UniProtKB/TrEMBL annotation:
It comes from Tranquillimonas alkanivorans. Residues 65-141 form the Oxidoreductase molybdopterin-binding domain. It holds the Pfam family Oxidored_molyb. Residues 1-21 form the signal peptide. This is Oxidoreductase molybdopterin-binding domain-containing protein. InterPro entries: OxRdtase_Mopterin-bd_dom, OxRdtase_Mopterin-bd_sf.
Length: 168
C-alpha cells in the first residue's frame, strides 16, 4: 500500500508541476526584478518576468548563514531556486546567472535542490537595494554543508541578479 501511495504521489506531483509550468505568468504589477529567458516552458516564451510579489508567491524561504561578504550570521529571504525552476518547467541544463553589471556565473540546474540555494530579495528583514547587493542575490545555505563552502559555490553566488538564461 505504501508503494502505491508513493507512485500516486510521484505521478500527481509530476503532472501538477508540468501543468503549472505550462500556465502563462500574469504580467508583473511592480518593478521587474528578474527576467528569465532561454529553454523555459513554451507557455512562458520568449521571456518570464517577475516582480517581487510574483517571486514571493512561488514560495518563500529564509536561510540563516554566514557569508564571505558579510559580517556575522545573516538572515536571507527569497524564493527557493528549486521552486522558481519548477515554475519555469526547467528540469536540467545550466543557468547563466547574470548580474546588473554583466558579471555572470554558470550554475548547474542540479544545484536547485530542496533546502538548497534561494534567490534572496531581503536580508535581515530589509528589502535589498542595488547598493546592498540586491535586488536579488543567489544565496546558498553555506553553513548547512561544507560542500557549500567552496570557491566554486562562492563564484556562483551572484549578487545584483537581474537575468537568468537557461540552456540545456
Amino acid at each position: 500500500m505504501l508503494v502505491l501511495r508513493c507512485v500516486v504521489f510521484v505521478v500527481f506531483h509530476g503532472f501538477s508541476a508540468a501543468l503549472h509550468a505550462a500556465t502563462p505568468l500574469p504580467a508583473p504589477n511592480g518593478e521587474v526584478l528578474l527576467r528569465v529567458t532561454g529553454d523555459i516552458a513554451e507557455a512562458l516564451q520568449p521571456e518570464a518576468a517577475f516582480d517581487r510579489e510574483m517571486l514571493a508567491e512561488l514560495g518563500e524561504r529564509t536561510i540563516e548563514t554566514t557569508t564571505p561578504w558579510t559580517r556575522g550570521k545573516q538572515s536571507f529571504t527569497g524564493v527557493p531556486l528549486h521552486d522558481l525552476l519548477d515554475r519555469l518547467g526547467v528540469e536540467d541544463g545550466t543557468l547563466r546567472v547574470i548580474a546588473l553589471n554583466d558579471y555572470a556565473a554558470s550554475v548547474p540546474v542540479e544545484d536547485a535542490v530542496e533546502d538548497g540555494p534561494i534567490l534572496a530579495y531581503a536580508r535581515n528583514g530589509e528589502e535589498m537595494t542595488i547598493r546592498d547587493k540586491g535586488p536579488l542575490w543567489l544565496i546558498y545555505p553555506y553553513d548547512s554543508d561544507n560542500n557549500y563552502r567552496t570557491e566554486t559555490i562562492f563564484a556562483r553566488s551572484v549578487w545584483q541578479v537581474g537575468h537568468i538564461e537557461v540552456d540545456k
